[in-house]
Specification:
The protein is an alpha/beta fold. It has a single domain, classed as TIM Barrel, CATH 3.20.20. It is 22% helix and 17% strand. It is built from five helices and twelve strands. The strands form four sheets. Strands 7-6-5-4-3-10 form a six-stranded parallel beta sheet. The two termini are 16 Å apart. The C terminus is likely disordered.
């Protein structure tokens, strides 16, 4: 397995990430089967596991499966999508971030998250407040790197009047690209002015506006387990960012 540097974090990740959406109990895999798939992926050299707080009990299942192997994994999770019916249990406000990270740490059974990502843009929250809260998590040792999933790099740029670069951590990319080989060939991370990077989840189409001269971040293919076999661990959760469904269709990685 060849490994790549995740943006400018210095963290080495496999070119394939194991997406954990399909490990939610409602998707049909038992916790034991999910653990077997996770272990098979780790044994094959995949070291990046990506889940989210909105994936029902996925974080708990992943956390239990990683017992004894946590140090071998670059563990990524996401926040921002609605969790429950409380209108404040979603988004990118400091109020929710400090609660969401503690919930994820507890469910994952770990004391830190390697890559903490904003799942979807939150137009109702100033990006300055979001970045400030995330930086505080890094300083507290609860998060190693921060990123964004499914949003343009420009949306995470440090706004005019925001704290200086020395006041927050911006060299932290999210690495999510599509399972489509065609789209992946066009999907490279688009560095934003603050140094963070964004990689597209929605077919790579948005990435085509990247400057060819920009330094590319890491591109990884995120695959989700489905169907209950080690082969199905490479079944990808396909594009659904423009869909009203909370669950993406299954699609094979290429």
């Amino acid at each position: 397995m060849r490994y790549r540097t995740l943006g400018r974090t210095g963290i080495q990740v496999s070119p394939y990430a194991l997406g954990a959406l399909m490990f939610a109990s409602s998707m049909g895999n038992s916790p034991e089967e999910s653990a077997r798939i996770i272990h098979a992926a780790l044994d094959a050299g995949i070291n990046l596991v990506d889940t989210a707080d909105a994936y029902e009990d996925s974080e708990e299942i992943v956390g239990k499966a990683l017992a004894g192997r946590r140090d071998d994994v670059v563990l990524a999770t996401k926040f921002g999508r609605p969790v429950g019916s409380d209108p404040n249990h979603q988004g990118a406000s400091r109020r929710w971030i400090v609660t969401a990270v503690e919930n994820s740490l507890r469910r994952l059974g770990t004391d830190h998250i390697d890559l903490y990502q904003l799942h979807r843009p939150d137009p109702g929250t100033d990006i300055e407040d979001t970045l400030s809260a995330l930086t505080d998590l890094i300083r507290a040792g609860k998060v190693r790197a921060i990123g964004a999933s499914g949003m343009p790099a420009s949306a995470s740029s440090r706004p005019s009047g925001s704290p200086s670069a020395a006041d927050w951590s911006g060299s932290t990319p999210s690495s999510r690209s599509t399972p489509s080989s065609t789209a992946a060939s066009n999907a490279r991370s688009c560095p934003s002015p603050n140094g963070s990077a964004w990689a597209p989840w929605s077919g790579g189409r948005s990435a085509r506006g990247c400057s060819p001269g920009g330094s590319a971040g890491t591109r990884t293919t995120t695959c989700g387990a489905a169907g209950g076999s080690s082969t199905s661990a490479m079944s990808a959760a396909s594009t659904w960012s423009n869909s009203s469904s909370p669950w993406p269709p299954r699609r094979a990685c290429r």
